[in-house]
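Justification of computing resources. Each target in the renewal requires a structure prediction run like the one illustrated here; the chain below, 471 residues long, is used simply to show the kind of job we budget for.
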Amino acid sequence: MLEIQEHSLYIFLRFEYFYIEGSDNKMAQEINVPGDFLTIQAAITAANDYDTIRVAPGTYTGPITIDKMIQLLGAQAGVDARTRTGSPGSESIITGTSPIALVQLLDNNIVVDGFTIENNSAGSGILTSNAFSGYWIFNNIVQNNVIGLYMNSNGSTESQVKQNVFNNNNQSGAATGNGIYSDQGIQNLLIESNRFTGPHANASINMIGTSVPAIPATDIIISRNEMITDNSIALTNTGNVAIACNTLTNTQGSSIFFGGGTDRTDINNNILQNSISNGINVTTVFSGTTNSNIRAKNNNIQGNANAGLNIVSGAYVSPRRLDATNNWWGSPDGPSGDGPGSGDAVFDPDNVAEFVPFLTAPPIPCTNEFVLLQLLAATQQELAATQQELAATQQELAATQQQLAATQRALALAQQRSLACRRALALAQQQLEKCQAELRQKRINENLKENMRCFKCGSNPCVCCNPCECC
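Resulting structure tokens:
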């Protein structure tokens, strides 16, 4: 199935793949746990690429490592985790203690669907590697670990995290308190239709890239997720991120948090309400570098304790102003603070944002059709702006070419003058050499005259006669 996903300036083509027994490996088989093997790891060891492992309800001890392209299906595979109670009698539960993860994925195109993964006091619930891509993490309850999902990928194939519940992943340890966390490289990722509760002490979703060494966090779509009395979507050193149609209410920090170093972030049609801090907070606190190209439109932003939009001084530097137009700020007269109204405040000490016009009523709830229209309109606006920039660049290029032509003409004239000067100099040198030769000859003649002696008396001057007679 070909699905077009578009956000802001960029369009992602997402090819969803499905495992079909016999399509790539005629020996693909289905393995049952505990029917064929008592443990999940034993079944993985016996499996080949493209096999399916089905795990019956029960409690299984981790950790497990999947290093083959397989489907690992729990008893609740295909059942949205947000609709489940997590009853032990109906769940395939993986539990245990591992400093790495209870479920570690070390190959491309691995599916983990329909499990409860819980109670790892030493590491993550699930971990993926930045050496691979194409992970599908579907319909899992991931709870009470240090980190819920430690998500990394090289992005060769899109990875998807859908219809999971991440709850209270706050066990003591490094990077604790994150539902989904990445700091080792993440590209081409869809996080869609998940629920985050707990609350997580740090962030519901925390995407971090670095520049030295180059570990990118780019091409990420975060859509249709629920953060209910949980924590932020946090971005640091990211590029090309779309945040659309999410609901964040009563968050324990800013609903959407920028830690610095981000570029090209589109925030569209989200509900950002009643956080204990800000709806959107733009800072440089983690990376120390500025953010650029942020656009936040058609969002329902209200009831946040500090501000709807807070931009720390020096945190946003971009050729384009931060576009926060067409948002609902909780009042028909617009935002307060630096705004004209009484809604959630906008704090913009550097005057880098646009927030007028604003919506005078809450936006239409997020639907596929509405989002598509909004994204299409946004793309058309971006296209028009890009065309204007292109026209301006072409004008600058034409002016530069004219200046170059004038410079070339001046250079040609200068070269002609230089040639004339060189010719005049050569002529002067010839004249000088002629004068010098004449002077030398004159001196020779004078020396000859001074040294001449009378052939009669042998004296100079002559003493025996008049010089004119003998000399």
